[in-house]
Structure formats: C-alpha cells, structure tokens
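Exercise 7.
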Amino acid sequence: MNTLSGMVRCHAGYGAKSVSDAASFFPRAVIFDYFGTLTSAVRQGPTHRWMARSLGCDPDAWLKLMAETFYERASGRLGDPIDVLRHLAARLGASPSGQALRLVRAQRIAAIACDGPLRREAVPVLRALRNRGLRTAVVSDCWYELPVLLPGLPVHPLLDARVFSVEVGRCKPDPQMYHVACERLRVAPRECLYVGDGGSRELTGARAVGMRAVRLAAPDLAEHLSFAPDDQFRGPIVTSLADLVPLVDGLRQRPNSDLDCCSARIGA
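Solution. The predicted structure, written as tokens, is:
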C-alpha cells in the first residue's frame, strides 16, 4: 500500500523538478491560498452589478475595469479604497457621491464573502493539521476586503499566520509573499507544503523559493474566477482539501518519499 498518494496525481514534464524537489521532505507547515482553495470556486454574484450602478457606472464596463486593475489594487499601489473607487468610477465617466462610495466600500466586503464561501472541509482540515503539530497560514492576493472579512470566519483562529498582498505590497508569485509567511511561521521554505488552485502562478512561485507545492483541482474550480493561471506547473494534484491530511501523514511517516513523482493511490 502506498500511503502517500491517495487521490494525488502528478504531471510529468516542465516544472516537475525544481529547488523544492529534495529527496527528503518532512513538512512542518502547510500554507494555503485563500480564494478557490480554502473557499469554494469564486463566482461574482449580482451585488457587483448593483454596486456598479450605485456608482453611476455601466455594470459590464465596471466589472471589466475591476478585473483589469486587480493586481494594482491587490498590491496596495492605488491607495485608499474610497479614493480608488472614486478614481475608477471617474475613468468610466461617473462622479459618485461620498455616501455611494462608502456604501460600496462596505458592500464589497459582504459581496466577497458571498462570492466564495468557505469549503465545508476547510475547518476540519485545518484543525486536523494543527492537531498533528503543523503550523498553518494563508497567503492571498487580495484587496482590502479579506483582511476585514477573515477575522470573522471560523478558519481565522486555525491559522498561525495571515499574509495579504495588499499589506505586503507585492502579489504572488513574488518571493516576498512566501518569505513573509515563513518568517511569521518561523519555518524555512523547505519545510513548507504550499496548496493552491494555481491563480497568480502561485505554485511555481512557491517552488521557486524552495517549498513543495500541490495544486487543488476540485471539480467546482472549472468555473472559478481567477487571474494569471499557473499553466507551467506540472506537479502533484489533489481533488479535495480532505486529501491533504492523509498526504501529510504519509510524508511525515516516510520523509524520503517523492511527493512530486507520486502516481499510485491510497489503497492501491
């Protein structure tokens, strides 16, 4: 029986070997992406179109502009959210009132929560990892909403570190995003397993700094709103967050096992 690779499969080819592919791997921490990983697939709800109209903007043009400026907003380069919303509305010919801007700023937090609710297995998986003595973190490309939203969610007390691009001033795959997480967790990159859906080329970014990486390819992610997909990543894949617990158990029991070339299944 191969205890390492149930529900795990691996793509061979470009990206299958990197600095993180050392023969021995004993994880001390698991680092998660947030949107599409700890949450279900992100799908923008009707509130986003309502907010566009509240600002005096055409909804289609507003959604397009928001997508185009995601990384500028997520890096914090554009400044205060109210000023950013005002500036973006002006680019579309609108001049919203201060009241409308404040309302939309607040509504975006609720809308982001509704767009991607937590996966039902997120809390049990985080709790199981922490019960095994592993440290956990979230590393997310996000605007102002997630730092406000996360403290009210049940995953928050189960995370030892939280790294937000809007606070770091960088977006994945910039090495700083991963190094900040390691510093806060007090672990080395080579001791970390990174898990994400692949947006922002996060998986190849994690590998480049010395982490191991696993792609979450849950069925619902076929319709996930994402940016800069990690098309070059050819490493191991899990189809459910729940698969991580037996995977980590196997890695810690057999640290010389090769995560990146696994192909068998648990019970095979």
